[in-house]
Design a protein that fits this description.
The structure is a homodimer. The longest helix of chain A is centred in the N-terminal third of the chain and has 28 residues. By secondary structure, chain A is mainly alpha-helical. In chain A, α5 packs across α6, α5 runs antiparallel to α8 and α9 crosses α10. Chain A is about 70% helix and about 0% strand. The relative contact order of chain A is 0.10. Chains A and B meet through α6, α9, α10 and α11 of A and α6, α9, α10 and α11 of B. Chains A, B: Keywords: DNA-binding, Transcription, Transcription regulation. Chains A, B: It comes from Planosporangium flavigriseum. Chains A, B: GO terms for molecular function: DNA binding. Chains A, B: This is TetR family transcriptional regulator.
Chain lengths: ~230, ~230
DNA sequence: ACAAAGTCAAGAGCAGTGCTCTCAAAACGT
DNA sequence: ACGTTTTGAGAGCACTGCTCTTGACTTTGT
């Protein structure tokens, strides 16, 4: 049994090493990285990789799950260090963590928030890692609402047809937030990933030089829409 | 000279035909479409394509420019049909046109607003087509400001370091808009493309069913931040 | 202790890719 | 009509993802 564990452990290490190498190659070739190149760098032959990943897509899926988790954890850790009562601080800190991680790992960010890979369909096990950031944001909304510091109704009225979607969403996450507040939360969510994506994908090149100020302004503006006071 | 025109015209038609075929292949293979497959479908050999495009990247550039122009034109045409005094209507109409085009041409949209193609660097001639939508939005801001219906200062205060960027931007576009208003315009811009990207790239799957209501709500909310009254 | 079962890396091979080069046949300007 | 330019075809290079087979090694059941 201990012997089997050894083999299992070696296998796990090898798997991790392949992923690490692939992650490095991601920077050069994006989503269409070369399995053969990864194998070559690891001093093995391409067919050997298929012992660990059934296909290139499966390798990609592993990288995607890892990326979602890394991003989620970065946001969670940063946000957890902020005083629970400081709602605006929690929001801004989470935003900065997302942006920071994205700028540090632009190619992994592109993998999860960029254009979908052509033939690739994300399997179900990417969903929980993917929802870590949304869940985090929803938690801030929840706390603010419970404390009576976030109004349910405010700003643009929420269209009737949209409310069931929002109610189902709040239920799915397991956090109770009124649909009207959740709708504003999604505005902030769009604003966050819109800003990060534009910066990472180069849409801000030759447009905005002061990236930090710009991001800070946009996230504070989003917070204002939600109703988070400074 | 007329003879030369014939050859030139045939060449132009051939170029257009290659692009059209490539556009079709874009749907299946995304940014890494196959030159050979395109050639095969056109009944020619792969090397013949190099008479029209020096490389795959150059073909991609042509597709990118076309996509930016198509999107820009769709937005401009729709917006132009709205009463000039109806600022909110102009904004919402432009937004709907952008979303509509993106949903009709998801793969072309991914090409211009998705993750940047790995080895590819966008040449300078993509800039003017790319700025058609931003210019359009800026025009609405300008008209509203001139008419005294859009306040310069409102909402979140704009950080000092950001102002030169915004001033330069307004100058570059050739449309006079106060930096504070332009900052809110960029909020709306982020909101627009954040919403469209999330929908086209599948981030809203199993999250929002009522896409139209959701989009409408988000764009009205963005308009409110800018200061566009209904 | 030893054979059976399982696991692994390697190599050959298939069909495909972007791209370059050469060569013959058109189309063109004069 | 003649020399130039443009065009398509074909062969070829180095590369890709992936499959299948082979031989060596390790783990397991008895």
């Amino acid at each position: 049994m201990t012997a089997a564990s050894i083999r299992a452990r070696v296998r796990a290490e090898m798997t991790e090493e392949i992923k690490a190498t692939a992650r490095r190659h991601l920077a050069a070739d994006g989503a269409n990285l070369s399995l053969r190149a990864v194998a070559r760098e690891l001093g093995m032959v391409s067919s050997a990789i298929y012992r660990y990943f059934a296909s290139r897509d499966e390798l990609l899926t592993a990288l995607i799950v890892d990326a979602y988790n890394a991003l989620g954890e970065a946001a969670e850790r940063a946000e957890a260090a902020v005083d629970r009562a400081d709602l605006l601080g929690r929001w801004l800190t989470a935003c900065r963590a997302v942006r920071g991680w994205a700028l540090e790992h632009p190619h992994e960010y592109a993998l999860i928030y960029g254009s979908p890979v052509p033939g690739y369909a994300a399997p179900a096990d990417t969903v929980p890692p993917a929802s870590r950031v949304p869940v985090l944001i929803t938690g801030i909304l929840h706390d603010g609402f419970q404390a009576g510091r976030l109004a349910a109704d405010q700003g643009e009225p929420v269209p009737e047809p949209l409310r069931p979607d929002l109610a189902a969403l709040s239920e799915e996450v397991g956090v109770e937030v009124p649909p009207t507040l959740l709708a504003r939360g999604m505005t902030a969510w769009l604003q966050l990933f819109g800003a990060v994506s534009f910066e990472v994908f180069g849409q801000l090149n030759n447009v905005i030089g002061e990236r930090e100020s710009f991001f800070e302004y946009q996230m504070r503006s989003a917070a204002r829409v939600v109703g988070l006071e400074g």
